[in-house]
Amino acid sequence: MIKKIISIICLFTIIIGLTVFPSVSSATAETDDIHTLLIKDTKNFEDIVTYVKGHLAEGPIQEVKEIGLISYEGKSINNINLPDVISSAIEEQGSLPKTKVETDNEDFQLDGILKEDFAKNNWYIQDVTHNFDSFNIETGDNVKIALIDSGLDVNHPYLKDNIDLQKARSFVEGDKNLNDEFGHGTSVAGVIKSIAPHIKIVPYKVIGKTDGESLWTIQAIIQAANDGTDVINLSLGTYKSKTLQDEKVTIKAYKKAIQYAKSKGITVVASSGNDHYNLDLLKQNEKKYHLPGGLPQLITVGSSMKDDTLAPYSNFGKKVDFIAPTGYLGKNYDKTGEIDIRDFIITTFPTNKENTALDKLAEIPNGYTLSFGTSLAAPQVSATAALIIAKYQDVHQKKPNEAQVSNYLKRGAIDLGPKGKDIYFGYGKINAYNSLLSIK
């Protein structure tokens, strides 16, 4: 067999599987231009806003009253003698991190199996739906998933009938269209529809061409909650460790936003990340947190291989609740450096973007891509949660609460590894068919 050596720089099939990470900066809170305040009691919110506008801000400010968050460009409150009524009202202050999808630049060796029927890369759908049997029970009618991501190809032929643009919105500064210039959101949406064919997807754009702001993600969570969506999917994240001060404000801001969504009865799902970190030891050893995936307020999802082993990139730990099958470059890739495309999954990709080099060699049609990663694991759980909500409403004539949705996910999960919940697979591999059968 003739082997082809190909250098693929910034290969999207790797990018799309990666969780979103922050850009790294050595600046301290005193030298940052953008500052964030969290207010203890929202009853005092307007008073604090007035003070910030008059004494600290040097331009427009961003307000998220639901969680008492104020973000502004201007003076830091460090080393400033604030009035007691102002200083006592501030719970935390610091700077929120940027979010950025980082790339892996590698040389990949393709092993000559590229001409196989790409439909075989739907193996994850067969796995999660029990050979499509779940479609005979529920398909997700009248349920909405908030896709907080890089936008969406709203004209994609596979997705267009599932997209709800009534509440859709871009939070990216200076970019109010929903076009998916990166491609990540479109791929996540394809996974959602593959599990829940009749679901409605509401896009909230928080990532531009290269990166985004944590503030935009937090704003989108609040907006999705106020818009009455049923599930929020967060296939992105950040590692936050610049300073203790910034760390506290970032963690609390995410926690408050997610708790606000939960108070509205919304199930929030996030990816665990792709660095093979033990999330339990991340703070202890690396002085880092992974956010929002890994927070106890939401459902955190890791990735498994085709053979039900933990994917070598997937973060793990006690904070991981479930895993979902997303594959990898090939089960022997780490040993031989050879790619086996049968271990990838296939999903949607913007039709106005050129296919990746690997997709071209594999003869993948325009509008689709081969990929893997925890970014594609979270939407499998989000879609299954949506199916549970739809089925429960059919049976009980009311919407289940977030705890009930989580319980049905657990009932349906296939236990892998040590019996019961473990640090690698959580409660097990998600299974939509089993979860739907458990609803009586």
From TrEMBL:
Organism's domain of life? Bacteria
Q: Does the keyword Protease apply?
A: yes
Which intervals hold domain Peptidase S8/S53? 140-428
Among the GO biological process terms of this entry, one is: proteolysis
Coiled-coil boundaries: none
Please give the InterPro entries that the UniProt record associates with this protein: Peptidase_S8/S53_dom, Peptidase_S8/S53_dom_sf, Peptidase_S8_Asp-AS, Peptidase_S8_Ser-AS, Peptidase_S8_subtilisin-like, Peptidase_S8_subtilisin-rel
Keyword Protease recorded: yes
Q: Where is the active site?
A: 149, 184, 375
Q: Name one GO molecular function term.
A: serine-type endopeptidase activity
Sequence intervals crossing the membrane:
none
Q: What keywords are assigned to this protein?
A: Hydrolase, Protease, Serine protease
Q: Which family is it part of?
A: Belongs to the peptidase S8 family.
Task: Kindly provide the name given to this protein in its UniProt entry.
Answer: Peptidase S8/S53 domain-containing protein
**Organism of derivation:** Priestia megaterium
